[in-house]
UniProtKB/TrEMBL annotation:
Molecular function (Gene Ontology), one example: transmembrane transporter activity
Domain Major facilitator superfamily (MFS) profile: 96-489
Protein name, as recorded: Major facilitator superfamily (MFS) profile domain-containing protein
Organism: Hermanssonia centrifuga
Top-level lineage group: Eukaryota
Basic and acidic residues bias (residue ranges): 25-44, 55-67
CDD domains attached to this UniProt entry: MFS_Tpo1_MDR_like (cd17323)
Transmembrane portions of the chain: 94-115, 127-151, 163-182, 188-210, 222-242, 262-280, 334-353, 373-393, 414-435, 441-459
PROSITE patterns: MFS
Keyword Transmembrane: yes
Gene Ontology CC terms: membrane
Region of interest: Disordered: 1-68
Bilayer disposition of the protein: Multi-pass membrane protein
Length: 489
């Protein structure tokens, strides 16, 4: 029999490489009785990832006592267990990826869609301060700094799907309410509350991808997922400009709410849970129920998952989950560096978005609706670079893995940042220089497309690196990487 000490010091590597090959049930002598039955949701602290193990204290069990009892450890049914999200069919994996990407797309659309209608909104509410006008747009993004801090960890306690959909319902309610506001105070407050719920896909989506995609096949999925939050600010101003020109500003909120309600319905029916500790806890709960109905099957046995400690309380689980993002940020300098860099790029992108209407309305004399169409140049750069990078990201990873004796490293996701850091300033220079020289409008659009390409290459590399590094706790890792974005903006 395997000692309980070995179990306590287990690792989550098998989650990233596939299901464990160990038997589903293993008898373990535990030195101290369980103080309470396993809580409703397991504690993922029991098997921390390699890279953050120093930030999490693993319980140690010393000695043997007369009070020891048999424990059944619930695990996957071998390496090919279809219940393990990493063994899902490609159809199931892409369904989860597409739905999470849709959630991630609609939230940034809401963040920027109101910008072209801000003048009409200011006129109706009597807002004369340029700061307050800008606040009606930016307050939504400011909520992104706070929502991931608790939504990401909550998904590691109650599951990805449940937290993601609950947060989206919260966003949907307040975003719909924005269309019925009667004064500027209500609008600003409702926008902030909607932003809290809208931040959930940004924090949790990376965790979903880490749960169901293996390392060597994760690049294409991240390419789609990371494209969504960057296309949102592109589509938003285009749609918002036409709505502002042909209807009331209130339809900016109502239209996004209608689309989000449709995505919510898809999520309810097709987004399955992917978090391994929760899935195994549900399996353990079914086994407990079976044994309670027939105690003679296994008398005096406790049933717990491979992620559970023998002595734990739900209060400790909850506290650790909420503190984990801050520990990651404090103990992992790379998280600080990448978070600051992503915040800089994200802030630069939003600043750049605000200059596009001024270029084509002021310099080229185009109408609001026509000027908004130039955002599609940014979309071309984002989409084109994303699809090209999706084809090469996994190939680059496998190439360096082979050179390293078959051992992969998260750093093999970063080469795409090299062209990204070149395209971004190059695009900014071309856009500014050609607009000042009043060249043909296609020239600034080429620069805009390069800005989009540079942005998405940086984002995809960093997000995939974080998912590969923190795997089971990818949601907590993403919450800290994303945290500084709104503060820079």
């Amino acid at each position: 029999m395997t000692s309980s000490r070995n179990l306590a010091h287990g690792r989550t590597d098998s989650l990233d490489q596939g299901a464990s090959a160990t038997p589903t049930l293993r008898e373990e002598p535990v030195d101290v009785p369980l103080k309470e039955k396993s809580p409703k949701h397991p504690d993922p602290e029991a098997q921390p990832d390699d890279e953050i193990e120093h930030a999490e204290e693993t319980e140690q069990v010393e000695g043997r006592t007369a009070g020891e009892q048999d424990v059944l450890i619930v695990d996957w049914e071998g390496p090919d267990d279809p219940q393990n999200p990493k063994n899902w069919t490609f159809k199931q994996k892409w369904a989860a990826t597409a739905i999470v990407s849709a959630f991630t797309f609609i939230s940034p659309v809401s963040s920027s869609m109101i910008a072209p209608a801000s003048d009409a909104l200011a006129a109706q509410f009597g807002i004369t301060s340029s700061v307050l006008i800008a606040l009606t747009t930016s307050i939504f993004v400011l909520a992104y700094a706070f929502g991931p801090l608790f939504l990401g960890p909550l998904s590691e306690i109650y599951g990805r799907s449940r937290v993601l959909q609950a947060a989206n319902l919260w966003y949907l309610a307040w975003n719909l309410g924005c269309g019925f506001t009667q004064n500027k105070g209500q609008l600003i407050a409702f926008r902030f509350l909607a932003g809290l719920g809208g931040s959930a896909p940004l924090a949790i989506g990376g965790g979903v991808l880490g749960d169901c995609w293996r390392t060597e096949e994760r690049g294409k999925a991240v390419a789609l997922y990371s494209l969504a939050p960057l296309l949102g600010p592109v589509v938003g101003p285009v749609a918002g400009a036409w709505i502002a020109e042909r209807s009331t500003w209130r339809w900016v909120f109502w239209s996004t709410s209608i689309v989000d309600a449709f995505i919510q319905v898809l999520g309810v029916f097709f987004l399955q849970e992917t978090f391994a500790p929760l899935l195994l806890e549900r399996k353990a709960a079914r086994m407990r129920k079976e044994m309670e109905s027939d105690p003679e099957k296994a008398p005096a046995r406790e049933i717990r998952t491979r992620f559970d400690h023998s002595d734990r309380h739900w209060q400790q689980i909850f506290a650790k989950a909420l503190v984990r993002p801050f520990k990651l940020f404090w103990f992992e300098p790379i998280a600080q560096l990448l978070g600051a860099y992503m915040a800089f790029v994200y802030g630069l992108l939003y600043l750049f978005l605000t200059t596009i209407p001024g270029i084509f309305e002021g310099v080229y004399g185009e109408r609001v609706g026509i000027a908004g169409l130039h955002y599609f140049a940014l979309g071309v750069g984002l989409t084109g670079a994303s699809q090209i990078n999706a084809r090469f990201m996994d190939r680059i990873y496998m190439y360096y893995t082979k050179k390293n004796g078959g051992k992969g490293r998260p750093e093999y996701r970063l080469p795409s940042m090299v062209p990204g850091t070149i395209f971004l300033p190059m695009g900014l220079f071309i856009t500014g220089w050609t607009a000042q020289a009043r060249t043909h409008w296609i020239a600034p659009d080429i620069g805009i497309a390069l800005v989009g390409a540079g942005t998405i290459l940086n984002f995809q590399s960093i997000q995939t690196y974080v998912i590969d590094t923190f795997t089971l706790h990818a949601a907590s890792g993403m919450s800290r990487i994303l945290g500084p974005h709104p503060l820079i903006f």
